[in-house]
Write a structure and sequence with these properties.
The protein is α+β, with helices and mostly antiparallel strands. Helices cover about 45% and strands about 20% of the residues. It is built from 16 helices and 16 strands. Helix 1 packs antiparallel against helix 11, helix 7 crosses helix 8 and helix 15 runs antiparallel to helix 16. Belongs to the bacterial solute-binding protein 1 family.
């Protein structure tokens, strides 16, 4: 009944502005989602007569291009993006809210809905949840190391002129945050009552410094070579030349296709010492509507009753196997299977369950650059961890205050 009611409401809204809207919806999404998105668009066209044009945009470019286009009253009607964009997009009035009553909220993971909620309103429908974990090649490592010291010992054993025992994109704050937060660092202090306090930054506290010192030790001890990045990690693991890496669920399909026999240890189960465990960022991907679109009603109809359905999110999973944001999709995966074995999915679920959501406030945009610079300075030995983090926090505070 809810679906019918929403459809009727949206049809009425559409007819009231029939001369204002075009007969086309434009969607921006990344390469992995284009094919199935077009298939759903064709079904929407058959049902409504409204065309759906799916345009491929590199995921890393979608936000910046959308900010420019939407502010000029242009751009797509729908974007596929990350929850940590929401605060900035809402602040600029660029994405429209979606009524909670329009979707089956009981079928979605609460963390996914919370990630797209700002000031009590829902600004996107989540389709996937993700967090990184430790992946290990079973040709080298039969059982995953459970402590950071054991990880270093195993990594040293397989670090040779031709192979790496352990490698990850350490200069990327997203991938390194698990060691910083796991030791007690944090981006913005969060409380249930008040949300994020953007003036309380914990990226240079004692725990953050300890985490940064751990990251530095991977390089000082010769485990990770200078200059290693995501491409290094990904290609070496795919080629069977890296024993252990840190990566997310988006990559596992390629590793399976490459014939790598690997296991996954939730980062939250890696003991960092003194009772601390890894605490990775938790990210949520979702569908958002351009607030300045003339086709908002149609865009929401396409999202709610096509893309965000049980089958729709299953198709997202098949195309790009992150953790489905709809809880009932697990039943389809169990019945029909998917590109990723259940034990691997379960391990990533555990890593996400004990992780920390990326703040969805606009001020998060001020964090990435300074922290990336700080990690680079730490890794390259240009500054000691405490000084690099102190300077990064000062830059973040200065940027926020402007």
């Amino acid at each position: 009944m809810k679906k019918v009611a929403v459809l009727v409401l949206l049809v009425l809204l559409t007819f009231t502005s029939i001369f204002a809207v075009s007969n086309k919806i434009v969607v921006w999404c990344s390469e992995k989602q284009v094919d199935f998105m077009k298939t759903f668009g064709e079904k929407f066209t058959r049902d409504t007569g409204i065309l759906v044009e799916v345009q491929q945009v590199n995921f890393g470019d979608i936000k910046a291009k959308f900010l420019t286009a939407a502010q000029a009253g242009e751009g797509p009607d729908i974007i596929v993006g990350a929850h940590d964009w929401v605060g900035e997009l809402v602040e600029n009035g660029l994405i429209d809210s979606i009524p909670f009553s329009a979707i089956e909220t009981s079928k979605f993971a609460k963390s996914g809905l919370d990630a797209f909620t700002v000031n009590g309103k829902l600004y996107g429908v989540p389709y996937a949840i993700e967090a990184v974990a430790l992946l290990y090649n079973k040709d080298y490592v039969e059982e995953a190391p459970k402590t950071i010291e054991e990880l270093k010992k195993v990594a040293a054993e397989y670090t040779t002129d031709e192979t790496l025992g352990f490698v990850y994109d350490a200069g990327n704050f997203y991938f390194s945050y698990g060691f910083i937060a796991g030791n007690g660092g944090y981006v913005f202090k969060w409380t249930k009552e008040n949300g994020y306090d953007v003036n309380n930054i914990g990226l240079a506290n004692e725990g953050a410094i300890k985490g940064a010192e751990l990251i530095k030790s991977f390089f000082d001890e010769g485990l990770i070579p200078q200059g290693a990045n995501y491409g290094t990690m990904d290609s070496m693991f795919k080629d069977g030349l890296a024993a252990m890496i840190i990566n997310g669920p988006w990559a596992v399909k390629d590793y399976i296709n490459a014939g790598i026999d690997f296991g996954v240890l939730p980062l939250t189960e890696l003991d960092l010492g003194n009772g601390h465990h890894g605490k990775p960022f938790v990210g949520v991907q979702g569908l958002m509507v351009n607030a300045r679109s003339e086709n908002k009603a149609l865009a929401k109809e396409f999202i709610i009753n096509y893309l965000a359905t049980k089958d729709g999110i299953y198709q997202f999973y098949l195309a790009d196997p992150r953790l489905p944001a709809r809880t009932d999709v697990a039943q389809i995966i169990e019945e029909k299977g998917g590109p990723v074995p259940k034990e691997i999915v379960d391990a990533f679920v555990k890593s996400a369950a004990g992780g920390e959501p990326m703040p969805n406030v606009p001020e998060m945009g001020s964090v990435w650059g300074p922290m990336g610079d700080a990690l680079s300075q730490i890794i390259n030995g240009q500054l000691e961890p405490a000084q690099a983090l102190k300077e990064a926090v000062e830059k973040i505070k200065s940027s926020i205050s402007k």
